[in-house]
Amino acid sequence: METETQYREGLDALASHYGEILTLLGEDPTREGLQKTPMRVAKAMQVLTRGYSQDPHKVLTDALFEEKYDQMVIVKDIDFFSMCEHHILPFYGKAHVAYIPNGYITGLSKIARVVDIYSHRLQVQERLTQQIKDCIQETLRPLGVMVVVEAKHMCMQMRGVEKNNSITTTSAFSGAFNQAKTREEFMNLLRGQRI
Fold it and tell me: ∠175-176-181 over CA atoms, to 5°?
């Protein structure tokens, strides 16, 4: 995936603002160690928020295949990194996604791409979980979708309550996953033997 080679409009203005931020923090942005920092941060922020310029629905439909498979498909342990919209600090973890096809499947890597696109926006974990579920449900129209996201939040570790080992878990589900038995099957498979 091309990430650091394509930058969006506004890069120079963003760098200029980061220069001002350094000054407001009491630093001298002209000193040797900081001269290139505003542009570096601007480029990093554009990479970390590249999801705004990507269409997760298109990612799924670009690899849509007719298939008469109607059992659970699970893609688990999808690593992600995102930025909390409240403090612009990272949160990171794993997403686990399951869907039950209804005549169509998508490429397995496309599920991970959907997670990547939504996580590369300013987020809260609750919305991220819901957006992944909604995108797959609306685009593939499966019999059901379930998403579980587990994450550590730097805003809880570096500031505020400073709880380094806390993990936040969120879930969202639809269709067949409204049945407790189906949700339980998914959760049992998540806990199962890893390859």
Answer: 140
Average pLDDT value for residue range 120-124: 98
**CB atoms closer than 10 angstroms to residue 107:** 14
pLDDT over 80 (residue 80): yes
Query: Catalytic amino acids?
Result: 84-87, 125, 153, 155
Residue with tokens 């009491």: 26
For residues 17-44, average pLDDT: 96
Which SS3 state, helix, strand or coil, does residue 92 take?
A: strand
Question: Using 50, 70 and 90 to split pLDDT, how confident is the model at 164?
Answer: confident
- What is the DSSP track for 139-183? HH--SEEEEEEEEEEHHHHTSTT--TT--EEEEEEEEGGGSHHHH
* Distance from C-alpha of 27 to C-alpha of 36, rounded to nearest angstrom: 13
